[in-house]
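A favour, since you know our structure tokens better than I do. Could you add the entry underneath, on a fresh line?
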Amino acid sequence: MSGPAPFHDRDGLIWFDGEMVPWREAKIHVLTHALHYGSGVFEGLRAYGGAIFKLSEHSQRLLDSAKALDFEVPYSAAEIDQICRDVVEANKLSDCYIRPIAWRGSEQIGVSAQATKIHLAVAAWEWGSYFPLEQRLKGIRLTMAKYRRPDPMTAPSKSKAAGLYMICTVEKHRAERAGYADALMLDWRGRIAECTGANIFLIKDGVIHTPDPDCFLDGITRRTVIELAKKRGYQVIERAIMPEELKDFTEVFVTGTAAEVTPVSEIGEHKFKPGQITENLLNDYMAYVQPSRKAAE
């Protein structure tokens, strides 16, 4: 049985530097600066029923991430919003994932890159649950990562920069080889930070705890879930959380555009059981992202 089509060989259209181009023709040169030096930024969004969730927030974060990498995307947030809508419509998609990406081109190679052109592309495709459904329903298993999130004095840690995900790929692979769904990363101080592509929430005694995002991405889904939790009357504490505290928590879940809200059943030697708070927030989030729900509010 063949797997999914490789991403370079699909039908569809990709918006590339001002025009819709056939999917297979959206190409860059091998000497593109971003390929060699990681000078690219990206976003991940989901559309539900054709409506793109938190679109403007994602577009603005793309621009902010680019500034953190010392370049300016030649489009406004409002223009990127419209490009994303156009890509979803052009590909006749309804429930899908959208990937905007901006990067330095091939006009100059080397650490200095002032002469490079800044490119922008947006693609969209159907993409279901980030984790296998059978894992998600009973809670995913996490292992502890070896690499740590860097000190913000050593990297632009609050940007969604492509280069920052190199260690995430390494840790994701390490976890999957060992039979886990993902890895929990600590920060450079040894505090709990995040998974390789999702923020984490931990619950004990009816109170929700989540790491203070002072050295990693403060996810848009993370902020949404905090708002939903507070609307339900749950107390949410953002603080430094040490790994030795894992034994004290009873419920754990992770959040992200791709992960949405996903329960966790295990982190290393520690076991958890998806409970009522996790279930409530998972249901609240999925209801909130539906366009019919937002239209009624």
Notes: The first helix runs from residue 33 to 37. The radius of gyration is 19 Å. Helices lie at 33-37, 55-68, 77-90, 133-138, 166-177, 220-231, 276-289, 291-296. The chain has a mean pLDDT of 94.
